[in-house]
Structure formats: C-alpha cells, structure tokens
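Q: I'm writing up a methods section and want to include an example of the input and output format. Could you take the sequence below and give the corresponding predicted structure tokens, formatted cleanly so I can copy it straight into the document?
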Amino acid sequence: MFILKRKKKSGKKGKTLGRKLPLSLKQIGSIRKRLKSARRMRELALFNLAIDSSLGGCDLVQLRVRDIAKGGRILSRATIAQIDSQYPVHVEITGETRNAVAAWIARKKLKPGQYLFPSRLSESPHLSTRQYARLVTSWVSSIGLDPGDYGTQSLRRTKATLIYRRTKDLLAAHLLLGHTRLRSTARFLGIEVQE
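A: Here is the clean output for your methods example:
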C-alpha cells in the first residue's frame, strides 16, 4: 500500500520544508504558453526538455547537442548517463520538445559537441545550476505559484509523478528517474511503502 506524504511549512521566512511540489498538466501548459508568447526559445527548450527527461539540474545543463540529436534531427529517444551515478537514463522526447529544441539549436547554430544550453557568461561553458534554478523560480512565479513550493526538483519529479498517479506503477517511475533503488524512487516521489 502506498501513502503520499505531505510537506510541512516552516516558520522561518515562509520557506517550505521537505520535497518540492511537482507541476500539474495545467501548470505545465501555462508556463509553456507564457514562454512561447514571450518568444523565449532557450527557456522553452530547457523547460520542455526538463519535463520530458526528468534529469536533475546538473545533468540537464551539461547536455550536449550530440546527446539528443543525430544528423541534424532531434531524437525521439535518447540514453543519457547521469553524471553522479553514471547510471543510464532512457529519455523519450515528445514532438513539442523536439520542435522547441530544434528551433533553439538552429537559432544558435549549435554544433554536435557544443553544450545545448551555453552560458551567456564567458567564465562558464554552459548554463549553471544556479542560473537554471533562477529560471525555474521565474517560470513558476509567472503563473502565480509560490516559488518556495517549487524548484528544479519539481521539474525532475513532474513526469514521474504524473505517470505514477495515472498507472500506480512505481517501477515505471523508477526507470524514468534512473534511481538505483526502488525505495529511493518511492522516497523521492513522497510515497511511503508500507509492508
């Protein structure tokens, strides 16, 4: 039997303790709509890829074009080794994400060996995890959500949570997230496993 855990509010500066909330389908649609209307191609590609891939921030910002594209086209499926564990994660990239990423690559004229999300700062070759976190804060704030309740882990958690809620298949979420243990996936999603 699985029970969803609830997070607690801290009395300190309105910060939320515990795991960050995943986004709902409606919230995803709202953020996409805002990014499209503002013509923020890089952010749209980053947001869509974050949702589709369920990669952690450090893995996402260090993706290279060759990790998800071959011969000038974006792959519908890719296998990406996570930096910390070197555990391979199988990623399905939706049509909407492929279009956004392809438009971003074409606009920046990125080559296969280049980082998919290069930094605008000369000291760093790719977007930093801190810059990514700031973008996530701006995205959730733009649709009226409390940024204290959401963060980069929200994007990592979103697809796995949606799959788990629809299917109750913890193994599917486990494979998507690339965890080494099923218990880690349950804990990450806020599911308590009771014997």
